[in-house]
Amino acid sequence: MKTSVSTLAAASLIALLAATTAQAQDVGTILKNADSYRMGSDNLQVDTLVETFRADGTPDKERRYTVFAQSGRQSLVLMQSPAEKGQKVLMLGDDFWLLMPNSQRPLRITPMQKLLGDASTGDIATMSWSGDYTATLNGEEACQPAGAADATAPPDAGKTQEKKATSAHPSSQVCYPLSLQASRKGVTYQRIELWVGKQRHEPVRANLYVQSDKLAKQARFVMDKPGAGATVSAMVLTDQLSNQKQTRVTYLSRKDRTVPAEWLNPMFLARNPSLE
């Protein structure tokens, strides 16, 4: 009898460990699937528009950036608007540099360095979660909290694309809530609460926490179309620390592109202000 009980206990333990391992693998797959809606390829050129809006929802400022998101946690951001023309941000793993057109000395910055509105360097330069965070799956729940539709509507809700997005994830749709914890130091947010669609694992919304564990921003992800083959066309950030203003990061275009290796060297960039 003792042998039978011991055998049963051992079998139960093995089954529990197997289930835990399987769940961890599934969570990793879910997170990688969510990444694919933003990244899609290891080496990309992403033309990006950042817009800020006043508290009443009217447009305020805008800036354009060309982002070269490369494998191995490497990114180069070229600032394209007249007010910032010639400036660059280079990300190599945990290290960020700002390069000014009239200086030959790269300046160390943090991923929280603001570019425009609530869009930081990390928000623009990084487009992947799976390599930077460990994830925990917290069951299932509605993609949107009850009564949140009006609160999360974009400031420019009249745009056709945004109109589609506001109805893409009604409160009745089921999401997987994921808790993401930073696995390395050079990330923009220490912790993220991320909701992804249960069926296709597309990112829906996120709460973004800084090192002090304060809720800094809320993000909402806009898909370019419903159903299969969709990609994230925009990320709407709402400030949670002070003014509740919104910043929208729109991905105007994506294409595969691997940049020359020297472009990912801060000293080369400092000596070569013009790349293209």
Summarize the helices and strands and which ones pair or pack.
Blueprint: H1 2-36, E1 44-53, E2 59-70, E3 74-79, E4 88-92, E5 95-99, E6 107-109, E7 114-116, E8 119-120, H2 121-125, E9 133-137, E10 141-142, H3 160-166, E11 174-182, E12 191-197, E13 203-209, E14 215-223, E15 232-239, E16 246-256, H4 266-271
Can you characterise this structure?
- The protein is α+β, with helices and mostly antiparallel strands and 276 residues long.
- It has helices spanning 2-36, 121-125, 160-166, 266-271, and strands at residues 44-53, 59-70, 74-79, 88-92, 95-99, 107-109, 114-116, 119-120, 133-137, 141-142, 174-182, 191-197, 203-209, 215-223, 232-239, 246-256.
- Strands 1, 2, 3, 4, 5, 6, 9, 10, 11, 12, 13, 14, 15 and 16 form a 14-stranded antiparallel sheet that branches. It has a two-stranded antiparallel ribbon with strand order 7-8.
- The longest helix has 35 residues, at 2-36.
- The N and C termini lie far apart (78 Å).
- The relative contact order is 0.17.
- The model is unreliable at 8-25, 149-154 and 156-167 (pLDDT under 50).
